[in-house]
Design brief:
Order of helices and strands: EHEEHHE
Largest sheet: 4 strands, antiparallel
Strand order of the largest sheet: 2-3-1-4
Distance between the termini: 89 Å
Shape: extended
Radius of gyration: 24 Å
Length: 121
């Protein structure tokens, strides 16, 4: 017979990885873009009232003719960097991959503009 300690099963090793992303608190609690599903619990007009009450004139609501999304609410400052004709198709395509018409999906967008100029020597 084995001694009592040798017959014990070793305790499993338990670990936890913790990732923390700290960012500035924003009012309203939305990101740069909201994709509003056609059957979402909050519609574009309710979103408009929310953003107008807390952050007037900072968001634009774009109505869509799309099978899943009824509207996109986009931070106007993003549209100064990239026109909505370029930005929204990308966001809608990616949102279409994960969402259904009952959802409101928020997206954080980082746009980096690269500029290279040549000068005469």
């Amino acid at each position: 017979m084995l001694p009592r300690e040798a017959s014990r099963v070793p305790e499993p090793v338990r670990k936890a990885d913790v990732t923390i992303k700290l960012s500035e608190f924003e009012i309203p609690p939305m990101q740069d873009i909201l994709l509003v599903g056609k059957r979402a619990p909050i519609g574009p007009e309710a979103v408009r009232r929310m953003v107008d009450a807390v952050s007037p004139e900072q968001y634009e609501i774009v109505r869509l003719n799309h099978e899943i999304f009824e509207a996109v609410v986009v931070k106007i400052s993003l549209l100064r960097l990239l026109p909505k004709e370029k930005l929204l198709p990308i966001v809608i395509e990616e949102g279409n991959r994960i969402a259904n018409d009952n959802m409101v999906v928020k997206a954080q967008i980082n746009i980096t503009i690269q500029i290279s100029r040549t000068v005469d020597l």
